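Support case: user asked for a sample of complex input and structure output to validate their parser. Sending the pair below.
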Amino acid sequence: METIDLSNMPIRTANEVIRGYGAAHQDVQIINPDAKHYLCVGLTNPIQVHIKGSAGYFCGGLSDGPCIEVENNVSWGVGDNMLAGNIVVGGNAGAIAGEALRGGEIVIKGNMGSRAGQVMKKGTLCCVGNSSFMAGYMMYGGRMIILGDSGEKVGEDMAGGEIFVGGQVNSLGNDALQVAPTAEDLESIKAFLDRYGLTFTGTFQKIVCAGKQLTFATPEPRMRSLPHTQFTGSRVDYWNAKVVEDIRVKAHIGRYRIRGYGAARPVPHLSDLAFRKDLTGAGLDPGALARVNLRTFIGGKHGGRALDLSMPVMIAPMSYGALSPHMKRALGIASRLSGISENTGEGGMYSYERAEARQLIAQCLSGRFGWNIHDMKRADGLELYISQGAKPGLGGQLMASKLTAEIAAMRGIPAGMDLRSPSRHPDVLGGDDLIMKIEELREAVGWRLPVSLKLGAGRTRDDIKIALKDRLDFVELDGMQGGTGAAGNEVLEYVGIPTLAALMEALEGLAEIDARDQLPIVLMGGIQNGVDAAKAIALGAHAVGLGTAMLIAAGCIACMQCSVGNCVAGLATQKAAHVARFDIDQRSLAMHRYLESIRWQLAAISAALGHDDVRQLCRDDLVALTPEAAAMTRLPYEPSAARDLRN
Amino acid sequence: MCAIAGLLFKKGRPASFSMTTGAALTEILDATLHRGPDSTGWALYHPALEGQLRMRFFIGANGSGQGDIEKIHAALADQDVTLLAGEVLGCTYGARVRFNGDVLALTHAIERQVRLVSIGASLDILKDVGQPFELSPRYAIDAFDGGHGIAHIRLATESGVHPDTAHPFWACGFSDVATVHNGQLTNYWIMRRRLERRGMVFQTENDTELIAVYLAYQMSRGADLEAALRASLEDLDGTYSYLVATRDAIGYAKDKLAAKPMVKYENEDLIAISSEEVGLNRLFPGRALATSEPAPLTYGLWRRESVFA
């Protein structure tokens, strides 16, 4: 047994030392832990770790296989996202014990705090004492055994799994149901308790999901799709065909409608800006690409390995689930061919895409679907999703028609439900928790990867400051024109703030605290071409992200019914026959060619403005074409500068 | 978005506890520094001075400070407040005064002319932009060895980073009442308008100030601290763990969602409170502490057994 004394070793070093012993399969004891955070985070070897005292936040988090014994207490999030192994805590556990648990066993000999087992999916969480408020909140699977009292609202919004309560059930949560445990249940619990030397002589009550809210009662009717252009713009009839359709569908289903894409109503955007100088001949300069440096490093601010992009462009996060397997592979190929990064989006890493993409960001969302330590280590960057521009404040939605058995298994949830991801992370309830989550992610990968934040534009001026203080490497800032696979129509149109306004708020927020260039911003949300990208960079963005434009390049017909799962182009569907229509090679080349057009535009515009590096683009290069865009950006209003560079 | 700290010696600091009260509060804050790197503050409870008040004011940095002090002196003289001693400390001016009138009336009379931090027979609030170990020497925190105090580090979210928006907040107009808070109130403007209609005054847009003002309002209507804490659980929406200190006690309240942490450790000599257990272990290195976290939707109060011990 090796000994680590935490009174004189930083946690980051200690975790590497523990992993080193883990690699050699040597057991470890830790003295003077003094409730320090992130102990044994990211440990993937089946060694015994004996902690002689209390551990802090996320003890044993993001791990696979360790056997950890804590003599005294643990703080929040013990065993966060553990895949296998066991953790035994001699004292009490703070809030969210066993959050997002994906396997293995956790035993708390004392009491546990609120929201234990939030979004857990597998494994067993056992509490010998009492549980606090909302145990099993949004639980998707696995087993919780509480020998004492349950606390209020046990099983709130659970979608799967089982909770056994030996003491009093203080109150049941929403959509939870109390049933009698079966003989097999009791036998299995007894075997579990015996293994940990625990005795219990009372009777158990079992709590499961009542299942009344897993799917919408009346599905949306299939409609002939009314294309985008028939209901956008300010010149359409007030009671136009789309409005009439909308009312009729709501009269049938009695709730909000869900669709794909982002806001369709016109708001000031990058197309309302122009370059001060006449760039008419810009595209004719054959030497522009050779002369202008576009290569962009992003994410190395806090010691991680920066992403190395051949141009300041990324592919926006889009999930395997919302998108078909073929489309995800094609995105991986296109990103590699163009030397930029791809992003997993929600729901875990699709291995075929990992194989194709050279640089892949793994995104961590509130439901922690598919999130695990091994995929984190396979990633080139980690990203914590707070919200997205299309629906700030809301979680993802994946309707039952797209939640196939394979995707449900990857996400660790029951198939056949209308999946509404939680709107909040279990462990991020403010800027103070956020930094602890970020540090846990960094610890798990030994501080080797960049960690970014995906931020939907809402309270951007304040949020960007928090992102800076919480030591993120960069922020993906997403405005309301950003697309999504599924969200309520009114949310899409009226909740977010425009991309242009979001960028300005973010830049001003940073300037207010004298941090103008200290946090790179990747702007996304309705970026259509290299001209938009150049304008965004001139305004102060470090790079741009492309989502919807990539879909269109891959054959999307903009029917906006991504949520339904019948995508005729095979992009946003899981139906085998539709997916088969999508030719991976052809489509990835189409997206690659589109990306190269952006590269060309970025270079041509920079060169024509006399720059030899794309980062020399600046506000002085821009004017506003409308009073609204001028007000938003504080650029000079010069309508005479209107020239269409896209032709 | 912050960390809170509290320490109360039931009968005065025992010899076995080697840190001063001020130093111990600073240690707790430093252990949880990741939660709030922007500003730091302490509400320290000195022995009460018979017939005297401690007053603290913000003054301008460098050049403008002297002018501010003159303004303070003039404002006090206007209200028949006798200045006994005055001293500049960091960005503040501390005064010891003799005053026999009503503190609330005095506050209303001067609060638009000077920037008041706190008034009390015991209470002294020291707060500034910066981190605990950096500010502690500037404000002589280690020298404080009184029976109790609360403290705070802040990560600014909505309001700006200035000394004024640092915690603790004094319950403006009410002697010796101070508050620190971790979390956010979601019915801030509703409550603020309600309290303003009843004549309460706000100096900032920080939600913690609202807690202090709210408690002061409840107590001004005759509620004791315990009743005020109980009422706050009903009236304040949001997610919070807050501490309130008075001349002889520290109280806490925690909302029903329990999304903001607060851990306490109690033995026969003291009660110590931190946002995280790691803060408490700074006071007792190498020891496994029997800590506990208060249940959701609860409040509590710990009193010193003798204020003058």
